[in-house]
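Q: I'm writing up a methods section and want to include an example of the input and output format. Could you take the sequence below and give the corresponding predicted C-alpha cells, formatted cleanly so I can copy it straight into the document?
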Amino acid sequence: MAEGGRSERDHDLALATIPDTMSEIASAVKAGGRLVSLVGPPDAGMLIDLGLPTLAAIPLGFILSRRARAEARQREVSYQSLYVRADGERLQKLCSRLEAGQIRPNVDKVYALDQASEALDYVQSGSASGKVVLQIH
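A: Here is the clean output for your methods example:
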C-alpha cells in the first residue's frame, strides 16, 4: 500500500510524459487500465493520425511499439501513444470538463511560485503521489 491507504495499482489510466518512466508509470495502473504515452514509441493509431497511410501505419506502428505493448500486456494494461498538437477548440473542451468536475487531476501539493525550490525538492524526494503545482498568483 502507498501512503494514504491507496494501493500501488489503483489508477484506471496513467499518462506518461517523461521519457524512460513508462515502466514505473504502468505499475500504477490497475489491471484492465490504460497507459497513454506522449513520449513512447508511436503505435498504429498515432501514425494514422499523423497522416501515414493505414497500410503502412499498421505494420510500422506494430513494430515500433512492440516492446511498449509487451510490457503493458505483462502488467495487464493497454498501451496507446498520443501525439499532442495545439488545438484551441479541444483545449476549451478540456477546460470545460475540468470546470464541470468530469476530470479530476491528482494534485498532491500546491506551492506558491516563490516556493519553487521547496516544490522541486519535494518532487525529487520521490514522496509526491500526484502532481505538484506551482501557483502563479
